[in-house]
Structure formats: structure tokens, C-alpha cells
Amino acid sequence: MPGATVVGLKFVGTISLGLLTGVSYSLSNLTIPSLLGLPSATTAQQTFSRLQARGRTQLSALTTVTTTTLVLAYALSPRRARHPYLLWTALATVLSTGGDLWYSAQRRKAIRQGNLPDESDAFVNGEELRKGMERFKFVQTIRTGVAGLGFLMSVIGIWGDGF
Predict the structure, then answer these.
(1) pTM
(2) Is the pLDDT of residue 106 over 90?
(3) Could you tell me if 89 and 97 are in contact, meaning their C-beta atoms sit under 8 angstroms apart?
């Protein structure tokens, strides 16, 4: 029965990583360009703030599920079936969050210095908002690449396992 559990964990981790890659891709290549086309900076700011909050929730949930299932699959595998691709894929998933951590730190610093409006500000500078959206898009593009590389490793690893 442990074999079936390990196979299930591998598939759940791989599918979650695929979803993580897809969400990051859609944020960077579909959603942000649409927000940049909104006519009002105030509306764009409100929408962007909601998008960041909801996106952060979804991405962190997918990152947690992916990392946990892949590390558990490695830990529960018999010694002869402990393939390092599980750990490398989990590491790629964790590394994909590095851009988000950097972006959040930069955003807090800019708000503290008064260079970027807080969500509660009535006045929204359109140029600063555009720069913030472009930074967010860049971070999500990097996340897409790193998570996509992990997804590719995971698919090749599962294929190599013979599942």
C-alpha cells in the first residue's frame, strides 16, 4: 500500500506544480496586460490590490501542497525508489517564491518611503502604478520559468519511474 500512496503523492505534487505554473503564467501574460489597459488608475489600483491578495493566497497554497507532497513522496519511498528529482522539483517550487518575497519587500519599502500609494490613498499616481504592475509581471514571469522548469523535471521523473 505504501507504493500506491507514493504514486498518489507524486501525481498530486506534479499536478499542483502544473497548476502553479499555469496561474503564474496567466497572471504575468494575461491579467496584468489587461489591467494596464484600464482607463482609470484608481480602478486599476483597486483591481491590482485585490489580484495581488487573491493571487498570493492561491500561489502559496499551491506551493505548500506541491512542496509537501513531493517531499513526503521522497520520504515514504523505499530506499531503492528515492529519486532525487522529487527533492529538486520541491526545491524549484520553493525557489519560485523568492521573487515574491523580493517584490513584497520592495513594495513595503516603497510604501514606507511614500513612492507608492497605499491601498487607502485617494490619489493614485498612474506611472507609479504602472511600474508596480510591471515589477509584479516580471516577478510572475520569473516564477513561471522556475516553476515550469520544476514541472518539466517532475513530468520527466514520473515518466522515468514508469507511471
Answers:
(1) 0.83
(2) no
(3) no
